[in-house]
């Protein structure tokens, strides 16, 4: 059986496909979240060095992973939209940005909460923290550029260019920040020398990552649906949809 | 055509010298504000000097980005440039080079004088000027992408800073790092090599990305 992918590249058919997919991914997100939180709070043992405070990694690490991964996905779809002029790809890219920015912010925020009891400070100019902060700036730049442009097609393309420029720059920025950090002085605290993790902790973290992944899919689909409706509001099928709900 | 674009932009800048001087004086004022905010303690100022001068150079270069394309956009020259049979990337490279000659070179020349205010040793002053000499063209090149994308937008000036400043970070790190390494008595070769590498990469990619951005903005 071959699937006609082009059919779902049309915003109208994707709208309904997304509508069918959202409940499935929502249920998956809730299940993974409940299981992950249960493992995180009740099954995983207390860390003998960090006490209970380490449990913040069950949110922090998945958020940090998603923040980086979503930027790549966003740039990928934006690039596809730019190259093949497919409207839906650009809409998905636009829909990913706020979720990605939210996860970046969450990673920074939970990191600060973890840092205060562990390192005794909310913030250190560690290479990872700094590059995560810069990632947040890149997300904000992408979103504010798109928000400033009224014409959606121009917004899509301009956003795609800045997202791709960002992708080229991310490795450069990452290594610069890392070298900058070692140039000044070694960080007094290091994340890399953490003790080996218990299996239950790792399992909890992975399940929470799946929850974050499912949540992102749900949010992106929902936001894409809204964007589709907004941009296609003059078309016949949206008018039909409006008539049906009225 | 490349020479023609550079000469034209330089001529326009000479006819409107106030614009060029504004950028330079902005740079001087920002650098001079830091001692007033921090205090005249020379030991602290000497440590801060590379970072302060470099951040001020970043801001000064960024503030003048709006002029790279906006006047041509308003009077319709840009449309003619887009129609020209010469490669748009080449013409854009010319405009970037002119932007650097107008805003970057004065900063390079002025930086050692400001370094003296911060009591930098003379060897560090030379390194400061050299690092700016390699670094400021990168600022013009990357900045061109931001300037092209925000062409004709509301609040373009503030927006361009959001887009461009995160991309300037590597240049800042290694530009200021070179001066710091020199005052610490370490070699500066590694920093200059990396700055040179950034310059070459942005020389290849930035005009192309800027040309694509201009096409998007002018549709």
| Total E-strand runs of chain A | 0
| Terminal residue distance of chain A | 38 Å
Count the DSSP helices of chain B: 9
What general form of chain A does the structure show?
Answer: globular
Structural class of chain A: mainly alpha
Number of domains of chain B: 1
Give the tally of structural domains of chain A.
Answer: 1
Order of helices and strands of chain B: HHHHHHHHH
Ends apart, CA distance between termini of chain B:
23 Å
Helix content of chain B: over 70%
- Unreliable segments of chain B (pLDDT under 50, ≥5 consecutive)? none
Round the mean pLDDT of chain B to the nearest integer and report it: 91
Shape of chain B: elongated
Chain pair sharing the greatest interface: A-B, 27 and 28 residues
Class of secondary structure makeup of chain B: mainly alpha
The fraction of residues in strands of chain A falls at: under 5%
Reported for the largest beta sheet of chain B, the result is:
none
Give the topology, please:
The complex is a heterodimer of chains A (246) and B (219).
Chain A: H1 5-8, H2 11-43, H3 57-84, H4 87-119, H5 127-148, H6 152-184, H7 199-231, H8 236-245
Chain B: H1 2-15, H2 17-38, H3 42-63, H4 66-75, H5 77-83, H6 88-117, H7 122-149, H8 156-183, H9 189-218
Helix pairs in contact in B: 1-6, 2-3, 2-6, 3-6, 3-7, 3-8, 6-7, 6-9, 7-8, 7-9, 8-9
What does this structure look like?
The complex is a heterodimer of chains A (246) and B (219). Chain A has 246 residues and is mainly alpha-helical. Chain A has one domain (12-187, 196-245). Chain A has 8 helices and no strands. Chain A is globular. Residues 185-190 of chain A have low confidence and may be disordered. Chain B is mostly helical and 219 residues long. Chain B has one domain (2-218). Chain B contains 9 helices and no strands. Chain B is elongated. Classes of the chains: A mainly alpha (246), B mainly alpha (219). The A-B interface holds A 134, 137-138, 140-141, 144-145, 148-149, 153-154, 157-158, 161-162, 164-166, 168-169, 172-173, 176-177, 179-180, 183 and B 145, 149-150, 153-156, 159, 162-163, 165-167, 169-170, 173-174, 177, 180-181, 198, 205, 209, 212-213, 216-217, 219. Chain B: Pfam families: CcmB. Chain B: InterPro entries: Cyt_c_biogenesis_CcmB, Cyt_c_CcmB_bac.
């Amino acid at each position: 059986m071959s699937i006609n992918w082009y059919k779902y590249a049309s915003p109208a058919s994707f709208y309904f496909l997304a509508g069918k997919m959202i409940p499935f991914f929502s249920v998956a997100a809730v299940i993974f979240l409940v299981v992950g939180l249960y493992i995180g709070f009740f099954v995983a043992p207390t860390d003998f060095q960090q006490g209970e405070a380490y449990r913040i990694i069950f949110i922090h690490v998945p958020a940090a992973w998603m923040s980086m991964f979503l930027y790549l996905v966003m740039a990928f779809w934006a690039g596809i939209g730019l190259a093949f002029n497919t409207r839906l790809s650009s809409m998905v890219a636009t829909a990913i940005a706020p979720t990605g920015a939210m996860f970046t912010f969450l990673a920074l925020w939970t990191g600060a909460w973890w840092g205060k009891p562990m390192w005794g400070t909310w913030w250190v100019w560690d290479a990872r923290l700094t590059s995560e902060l810069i990632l947040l700036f890149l997300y904000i730049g992408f979103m504010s550029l798109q928000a400033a442009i009224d014409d959606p097609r121009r917004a899509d393309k301009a956003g795609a260019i800045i997202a791709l420029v960002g992708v080229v720059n991310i490795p450069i920025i990452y290594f610069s920040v890392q070298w900058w950090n070692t140039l000044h002085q070694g960080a007094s605290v290091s994340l890399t020398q953490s003790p080996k993790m218990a299996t239950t902790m790792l399992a909890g973290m992975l399940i929470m990552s799946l929850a974050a992944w499912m949540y992102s899919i749900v949010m992106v689909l929902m936001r894409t649906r809204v964007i589709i409706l907004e941009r296609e509001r003059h078309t016949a099928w949206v008018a039909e949809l409006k008539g049906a709900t009225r | 055509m490349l020479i023609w674009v550079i000469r034209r932009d330089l001529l326009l800048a000479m006819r409107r010298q106030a614009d060029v001087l504004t950028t330079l004086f902005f740079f001087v004022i920002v650098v001079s504000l830091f001692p007033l905010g921090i205090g005249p303690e020379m030991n602290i100022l000497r440590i801060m000097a590379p970072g302060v001068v470099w951040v001020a150079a970043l801001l000064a270069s960024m503030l003048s980005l709006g002029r790279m394309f906006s006047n041509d956009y308003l009077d319709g020259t840009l449309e003619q440039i887009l129609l020209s049979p010469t490669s748009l990337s080449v013409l854009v490279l010319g405009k970037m080079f002119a932007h650097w000659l107008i805003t970057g070179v004065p900063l390079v020349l002025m930086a050692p004088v400001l370094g003296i205010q911060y009591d930098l040793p003379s060897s560090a002053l030379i390194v400061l000027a050299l690092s700016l000499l390699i670094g400021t063209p990168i600022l013009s090149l990357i900045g061109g992408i931001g300037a092209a994308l925000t062409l004709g937008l509301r609040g373009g000036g503030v927006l361009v800073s959001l887009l461009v400043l995160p991309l300037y970070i590597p240049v800042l790190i290694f530009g200021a790092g070179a001066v710091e390494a020199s005052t610490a008595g370490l070699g500066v070769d590694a920093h200059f090599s990396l700055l040179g590498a950034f310059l070459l990469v942005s020389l290849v990619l930035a005009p192309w990305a800027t040309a694509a951005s201009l096409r998007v903005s002018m549709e």
